[in-house]
Amino acid sequence: MDFSLIVLTLAISFLLFFFLHKLLSSSKRQSRNVREVAGAWAIIGHVHLLNGPQMTHKIFGHMADKYGPIFQLKLRVVIVSDHKIAKECFTTNDMAFANQPKNIASEMLGYNNVMFGFGPYGLYWREMRKIVPTELISARRIDMFGHIRVLEVKSVVKEIYEYWSKIKNSNYLNSVVKMEMKEWFGNLIMNTMVKMLFEVQYTGYVGRRQQV
């Protein structure tokens, strides 16, 4: 038999097996899982549906009107818009939502699932749940970094004022500074986090950038 014919036969057999497996698995998932939003792409899932001018909560509201009070996205996310169902998720069925499905990304990037937010439910997860509220996100720990947040707000106001003064001196008739507030808040949050971790500034607020 010709080699090209063998390769073609194997390729067709693989494709048929793949589509049959996907068809059977999707029918099983539909019978036991919540509704899934249509329009998912192969690799990025539903990310493209959230990347638009409309606010995220409004997008979820339109999806809830179409798919019901509970639905899922191909982002490993289940959206619940009914308060009674949400209460059951956090009380009666909290164990079902505490466990995360294993995947290669969390295993490789999370050092074999030691990042407890992505790890499976177990003894390690329960111990980390006790430590995090008291050591990482407690009121005392947040107050310890309060001076960094104040410093970053002062820095951004100072940079905007210096930039405005520079424009005013060069062009007195047009002394208006236009700021992209989305980028402004993004830089403020990024600088605050990097300053807490590495004690350096990641990026300037007005036209300057400094990598860590």
UniProtKB/TrEMBL annotation:
Cell compartments where the protein resides: Membrane
Signal peptide positions (record): none
Keyword annotations from UniProtKB, A to Z: Heme, Iron, Membrane, Metal-binding, Monooxygenase, Oxidoreductase, Transmembrane, Transmembrane helix
Necessary cofactors: heme
GO MF assignments: heme binding; iron ion binding; monooxygenase activity; oxidoreductase activity, acting on paired donors, with incorporation or reduction of molecular oxygen
CC terms in the record's Gene Ontology section: membrane
Alphabetical list of InterPro entries matching this protein: Cyt_P450, Cyt_P450_sf, Plant_Cytochrome_P450_Monoox
Protein's name according to its UniProt entry: Cytochrome P450
Organism, as annotated: Capsicum baccatum
Organism classification: Eukaryota, Viridiplantae, Streptophyta, Embryophyta, Tracheophyta
